[in-house]
Every structure is written in structure tokens, then in C-alpha cells.
Amino acid sequence: MTQQDNSQTHADASPDATAPTASTGSPMSNASRPENEASKTDVPDSQERKPEIDPSESTSAATGDHPADPPVPMPEAGPAPAASANDSQDSAPPTPQPEPTALAAGTEPTALAAGDEPPAGVTATIAPERFQTGAKSVSLFSGFKTPKMLRWMRVLEEIGGWESTLQQDSDSELKKRSLALRYRAMAGEKLAKLLPEGYALVREAGRRALGMRHYDVQMIGGISLFEGSIAEMQTGEGKTLTATLPLYIHSLVGKGAHLATVNDYLAKRDAEWMMPIFHMLGVSVGIIQTPDDQGSRRKSYSSAITYGTAKEFGFDFLRDRLLLRAQNRIQTEMLGDGGGGFTDSGDKPVMRGMHFCLVDEADSILIDEARTPLIIGSIEDTVRDQIVETYRWASKHASEYELDDHFTIDDDTKQYELTARGRQKVRSLPKSDLVRTMGLVDLYEYTERAVKVHREFLLDRQYVVRPGDKGEDEIVIVDEFTGRLAEGRKWRDGIHQAIEAKEGLDISVPTGQAARITVQDLFLRYNHLAGMTGTAATSAGELRRIYRTPVLRVPTNRPPQRKQLSDRVFGALLTKFRAIVDEVKEIHATGRPILIGTRSIDKSEILSRMLDEIGIEHEVLNANNVEREAEIVSEAGGLGRVTVATNMAGRGTDIKLSDDIVALGGMHVICTELHDAARIDRQLIGRCGRQGDPGSYRQYLSLDDDILKGGLGPDKAERLKSRGENLEGSVDSYAKLFRKAQRKVEKKHFRDRMVLLHHEKERKKMQREIGQDPYLDTPD
Ligand SMILES: Nc1ncnc2c1ncn2[C@@H]1O[C@H](COP(=O)(O)OP(=O)(O)OP(=O)(O)O)[C@@H](O)[C@H]1O
């Protein structure tokens, strides 16, 4: 990577026109280079929680190859005896308690049988026997008689003890109680002491304001979150409602409680959904959205509770830090107790310290997104025109280069390298004056990148072209994990600009980096950190080592009834899609709703055309029709509905079923391909069988699937692909190979994250030694 290229990795995405611009970028190539400049600000970072990492450690322990089995269900224990008759939750007959190991054949296996050890890294799995609120004898599975569990049981009982009293209170009396708790917390009383009453208040407010009384499993999840765990709750078990508990209790001390989620849509949806609970308790809620200006951000952060994305929290931290350094106040205000110098107006930081953060989708944010640091750019590049023209020149000729003749691709690193003939071609191509003045080595790099982009980055698969805010078309990445458009995010290492050149768009040459922070550093700066996820078990080791957060698996409220149908493997995409269409036809005839998940927009559209051909009415949900998302989702569980979706139908998509549909067997989910992370597959599967509903799912695979290339290498993948071209029917015996390939890809991503962490750690250490601010004085 050349000096120029490095500066190109950081592009503009700031919502604030006057503030420095923000983007993502790679620190890898310059991670350990010292800044030549003399020290600027000495920033002690005593407030950071220290991770425990050693990239040399074995990867298998951290990635944990254990499947995240669904936990055993826990019957609602029933609250205080005086529960009112008009409370439907309370008056409902208790759910029968199943034998943990005896689910019906075909349903998913239970998490752990009595006496089993939890998967590597999972601190504990709560078993139903342990949570008989009020029961005299609390029998525990062997191996889990931890004092912590017993203590939580007692807290749950204490919370239950408040219930009858609170139910008799008027709304204003509830609010008064909440205010009284706040005074006590601000006066220094320990939150742990206030927790039973606080959680009981939130539960009562949930019941009144939203008609949702927190289940006992959610209360236990909430207690574990208060104590800094990552709570693993199955999809559809109500993480949104559970989050209200720790957010409320931490908000009482008046230093702000943040909920970090994966995108603006979820931040807004969850905040607005839960707001009535908080308002009933006199607690203010702010929402940060990407386009917000500094003024409205400051207002949102001044609320007791703030919902936003991890990315926005990170950029706000960096922008504040730049501002404070400009004002020379960084030590006293930013690193103080979090409240120093904050007012609601003027040229002030927008945040008021980092007190508590609850990370929703913890594995996605703390692990997947942790591969890319957040970077704010600033420096004007004098050679901008030259760079733009070189991108265009390289793109124009990219398709003239032949594999093996002009360039090679390294199987392991996926790096493109020009051969001697390729380099010769670069030298002989016609060039403008500006391009000619670029160094030869740079021209080779621009060419290699352009060839890579032309071969690997496809319109409507990895990205879409869409009119931007300023009217010009722009590239928007389609997030592989969420299927949504990743607003404001850019590929690093010049890839984004090479794609802009390929599509003939304006090239967004970035402007160097003024400040940056890794996701790990960002969250380790919070005094208190907790997380929720549907699927953390596979990442438990990594989460514990990096963030020091134990993973706790919370049982489901009702027994899961989701059936897994056996995997089906086909030779090629088309035969696979035909088989999928046949299955859709068959199940559609029964009236059950069907959700089909695809890995990309173009594949969702191919399937849609095939369904059109046989006259099956359906909806398509992908990043191209976000506007109709709510409508499509609200109807997806209806009689005879068929929905083809990208990963957008993942997290946050709550598909409700009527009693008729439940009687028919619930929703059927068809997964058309494996994703790079098994977690994403499970998110899609989690759209059916929610809250104990019946449902089924099946995984379809084909020998030309991308996962084989990523996991087994291009040669082996190519061999399998050509073998598949001549296959007619299904070859289901290959199924294991795909899971193996997926595990390999997961391990590779894990290694990348560890290398990034290691470099960052070294860089920060060195910068501190020479008195620099590791967030601001980033070498570029
Ligand atoms: N205590 C409760 N009482 C009644 N309904 C509840 C309760 N908790 C959750 N629900 C319902 O469960 C459904 C799923 O909730 P939510 O979307 O928060 O789940 P989730 O765990 O975030 O799922 P996912 O990970 O799939 O997004 C919602 O329809 C919600 O109304």
C-alpha cells in the first residue's frame, strides 16, 4: 500500500458538513508506524477496560465449533400470588414443564441435558429447574450450583414480591416511585440495591403501557445484563423488551444509558416501541439517526436513555475528541467522570461520557463489525485529480487482463498480482499526463485492484447504485449480514473508489484520517458493558477474552417447536432453485406462509422470476424496496403468503402468525445458501417458530455456492462446481462439506480480527509511550 493509497481508504460519510468526515478503513498496513510529529496531547486512558487477547492463541477455542443449540424452555414461574385477574399473563395456566431432553423427534435439540457441560466459553445455561420463583426447594443441575445463580433466583423472588403493591398504584404513583429511585441513585445508593424495585417498576410499566409483562426468563436475562453479561436469547424471545430493564436501572444515575444496535432502522423502531414504558416511569429517551446534526445529537445524548447505532456512537466519540483537543480540554473533560463541562447548547461535545452501553446483536457488532475500525477523515489531498484519473484509467482497461496470462490470484490471501506480462501491459497502455506522473508501482496496484473489482464486485449483489443526498449517483454497500444497505459505509483499500470508477460515478477520494477507533476500543471505554444476542454461543470465547463479558444462555419462555427438515444439495444454482420452487408450490398449497432467504438482491430477483413463471404470487423484500418493508413483513405470516427476501428479513423482523396459521403448522423458512457466518443463517431460521409457535425450515445448497470457494479454496470449489454441472437430482450426502467450509470461513474471519486487534494494541502502546493520543494521532 502506498502513502497515497492509504489516504484513499478513508472516505466521507459525515452527517455534519462542518465536522470532519467519517468512514471506515483499514489500519493494517500502517498499524505500527509511529507518527513523526511531536507529541500533541498526552491522553491517559485509565478509564478503559482492558481486553485479554493474544492472537497467537488457538482459534478453535475462541470460535468454539459448537452449534448454538436452542436453550431449554422455562415455564413462566408466576409472579406474586396477588396477581390481578385481568392480567392475562398472570391468569394464564402455567405452561407444562417439558423434560429437557425429551423433545418430539424432528424438533431442534435442547441446549444441554442435565449434567452436561455448556459449550466452550458459555458461562452457564440456565435450566428451567432453577427458576421456580417462590419454590421452596430450588433444584439445580449438577455443575450449575453457582452462588451467582442462587443469588439471581433470590432477586427474581424479590422483584416478584413488589408486584402486587405496584399493581395497586396509579400511573402517577408509579412515576413518583421511579423518581424516588432516581434520587436515591443520584445520592449514591448502590444500583444493585435498587434493582428489585426498579425491575418490578419496569415490568409493571411494560404490562400497563404495552400489554407485555416481562417473563421470568426476561427478568433473569435483565439481571444478567445488569451484571455485565452477554445474554444469549433465542430469536423472537423478546430482547427488545428485556433491554428496558438494564437501560432503566443504569439511567437512574444520570450519566446516560446507551443502547447500541446495528442500524438506524432498528434503533428507531426499538426506541419508539419501548418509549411508552420509559415515559410511564418519567425517563426520557433520545434516538440518534445518521443524518442528525450536532444539535439534535446533543439533545438525544442528554436524554436519560439513548438508542443509536454502534457506528454513530463511535463517530460521535471521535468528533467530540477532535473538538475537545481543538479546545485543548481533552484531559479534563473527556476523561473525567463523564459529566464535566456538558451543557445542552453551544460548541460542546455531543456525548456526555460513556457510562453504560447495552449492545444489541452483540456478536454482530462486537465481532463482525470489529473487523473494520471507524475512521474520520480530514486532510485535503493535493494529488486528488491524479488519483481520480488513475482510478478511471485502471478501470477502463481492467477487462483486458487475462487470468494467468496477465495476473494470478493467490488461493489463500485472494490477492491479485500482475505477472511480468501484465506489468508489461500496464507500461504499454496509453496514459494521460496525470496518470503518467503516477509511480509505476502505484499503477500496478491500481490495475490489480481494478481487475479484482471487475471480477468480484457485482452490481446488485455486493452493492447498488442509488441517487445520493446531493443528487449524484453513489455506491451503497449491501451488508452481507443484514441484507440492508449499509448507509455511509465504504470499502477500504481503494476498493470503493475502484467500484465508483467501474460504474462511471464520481470518485470519492478520501482525505486522510484525523481520528479513528476500533469497535473493541469503543466499547471497552464504557464503564459498564453488556450485550444481547440470539446467537452468541459460537463466539462466547472471543467475547469473553476481548470484552471480559461472560455469555449466559437464557432459556426460551415456551418450548421451541421449530422443525428442521434435512438439507438438500444440488449440482448447480438453477437445479437448486427449481427444487426450491417445487417445495414452495407444495407447501403453498397447504396455505402455510413461506419465507425464502437469499444471499443477494440478484438471486432474490431470479427466484422471484421463477415464481412468477409458475404463477405463485409473492412479495420481494430487498434493499431495493425498503419503503415497503413494514408492510411486507406485517403480511408475511398471512395465509398463503410467499416472501422472497435477502438478509433484510433477519434481525428485527417479527412475523406474527394468526391462530389459523399456527394450526396449519406455522411458517416455513427456506434458506437458499449458507452465509459466511452460521449466525446469519440462524437469524433467518429464527423468523419461524417464534415464541413457541410451530414452524419449519430447510437449508438448500448447491455445488457452485460461494461458501465453498471461501472455505475450501478456489481449486476445490471449481472441481466441485464442474462435477455439479452434470448432476441431475440431489446429492444430499455433500451437506457436511458445506458446514465444514462455513466453519473454515468463520475461522479465517476470526484470525483477521485477532490480527487487527494485535496491531491496534501494539500501535496504541507505542503511541502512548511517545505521548500521543492513539485515537487522534493516527499515522497515515
Ligand atoms: N413479555 C412478553 N409478553 C408478550 N409478548 C412478548 C413479550 N416479550 C416479547 N414479546 C413478543 O415477542 C415478539 C418478539 O420480540 P422481539 O422482536 O423483541 O424479539 P427478539 O428477541 O428481538 O427477536 P429477533 O432476534 O428475531 O429480532 C414480539 O412480537 C413481542 O411483542
Automatic annotation (TrEMBL):
Residues covered by region (Disordered): 1-103, 761-780
Keyword Membrane: yes
The UniProt record lists the keyword Transport: yes
Domain Helicase ATP-binding: from-to ranges: 220-378
Domain SecA family profile: 134-733
Bias (Polar residues): 1-10
Membrane topology value: Peripheral membrane protein
Localization terms from the record: Cell membrane; Cytoplasm
Keywords per UniProt: ATP-binding, Cell membrane, Cytoplasm, Membrane, Nucleotide-binding, Protein transport, Translocase, Translocation, Transport
EC code(s) of this entry: 7.4.2.8
Residue ranges with Low complexity bias: 11-27
SUPFAM superfamilies linked: P-loop containing nucleoside triphosphate hydrolases, Pre-protein crosslinking domain of SecA
Amino acid composition bias (Basic and acidic residues), ranges on this chain: 34-53
Main location: membrane
Enzymatic class: translocase
Helicase C-terminal domain location: 576-735
InterPro entries: Helicase_ATP-bd (IPR014001), Helicase_C-like (IPR001650), P-loop_NTPase (IPR027417), SecA (IPR000185), SecA_CS (IPR020937), SecA_DEAD (IPR011115), SecA_motor_DEAD (IPR014018), SecA_preprotein_X-link_dom (IPR011130)
Catalytic activity: ATP + H2O + cellular proteinSide 1 = ADP + phosphate + cellular proteinSide 2
Residue spans of biased composition, Pro residues class: 69-78
Binding site for ATP: Q218, G236, E237, G238, K239, T240, D654
Pfam families attached to this UniProt entry: P-loop_SecA, SecA_DEAD, SecA_PP_bind
Subunit structure: Monomer and homodimer. Part of the essential Sec protein translocation apparatus which comprises SecA, SecYEG and auxiliary proteins SecDF. Other proteins may also be involved.
UniProt similarity note: Belongs to the SecA family.
Function: Part of the Sec protein translocase complex. Interacts with the SecYEG preprotein conducting channel. Has a central role in coupling the hydrolysis of ATP to the transfer of proteins into and across the cell membrane, serving as an ATP-driven molecular motor driving the stepwise translocation of polypeptide chains across the membrane.
Full protein name: Protein translocase subunit SecA
Gene name, Swiss-Prot/TrEMBL: secA
